[in-house]
From TrEMBL:
This is Pyrrolidone-carboxylate peptidase. Gene3D superfamilies: Peptidase C15, pyroglutamyl peptidase I-like (3.40.630.20). The lineage of its organism: Bacteria, Pseudomonadati, Pseudomonadota, Gammaproteobacteria, Lysobacterales. The active site is at E90, C153, H175. Removes 5-oxoproline from various penultimate amino acid residues except L-proline. It comes from Agrilutibacter niabensis. GO terms for molecular function: pyroglutamyl-peptidase activity. Homotetramer. Belongs to the peptidase C15 family. Coiled coil: none annotated.
Length: 223
């Protein structure tokens, strides 16, 4: 094996995932932003971007396959949260699927465990307070979110943390707003340009890769 090929094989990787469009949308800004980072190097790691289907069960199979293929040092999953105005660093994933709308395969699970007999919840493995501070310093709208919902995003977040529970790999989830193109079709809905989201993800990953112990910073919620 040549030195160049060996360096490529040995270079640590970050797995970054986004979702396919859903709910009648023609694009999903999570994938549009994530794929802009594919192949880039951040903090000595190569970014590998993968798209996940908006389907219960199938999304987790695709995620687990991507983890096996890439053997990442860190995993960050990204999803669309139409109606939110900021990048949302998710704190906790809960062990329940409760779909308000069908997924892209037509499934609408109600009050089902994601992992039968699994823990009620998992906390993120990423330093979300340090990430919050860095994103604020960069002027990017950001918040710590206390709920990832009960749709496919939470399904993937919980499944990710369950898959990583016995591995020395950190993982977490970020929700992002509509893109401006989407918001134009949803009067009054906030948006964030995909380029800004891409910049925010790059900063978030830089911080996550460089931070071992998270900051102590108030970012809770009253309701």
């Amino acid at each position: 094996m040549s030195a160049t090929k060996q360096a490529t094989v040995l270079q640590p990787r970050v797995l970054l995932t986004g979702f396919a469009p859903f709910a009648g949308e023609t694009l999903n800004p999570s994938w549009e932003a994530v794929r802009m980072l594919h192949g880039r190097r951040i903090g000595g790691h190569r970014i590998v971007a993968r798209q996940l289907p908006v389907e219960f069960g199938t999304a987790l199979k695709a995620l687990r396959a991507a983890i096996r293929d890439t053997r990442p040092s860190l995993v960050l999953c990204v999803g669309q949260a139409g109606g939110r105005a900021s990048m949302s660093l998710e704190r906790v994933a809960i062990n329940v699927d409760d779909a308000r709308i069908p997924d892209n395969a037509g499934a609408s699970p109600i009050d089902l465990e994601i992992v039968r007999g699994g823990p009620a919840a998992y906390f993120t493995g990423l330093p979300i307070k340090a990430m919050l501070a860095a994103l604020r310093d960069a002027g990017i709208p950001v918040e710590v979110s206390q709920t990832a919902g009960t749709y496919v995003c939470n399904h993937v977040f919980y499944g990710l943390m369950h898959a990583l529970r016995n591995r020395k790999v950190r993982g977490g989830f970020v929700h992002i707003p509509y893109s401006p193109e989407q918001a134009a079709l949803h009067p009054g809905a906030p948006s964030l340009p995909v380029e800004t989201v891409c910049q925010g993800l790059r900063i978030a990953l830089q911080v996550a890769l460089a931070t071992g112990v998270d900051h102590k910073l108030g970012a809770g919620a009253e309701h």
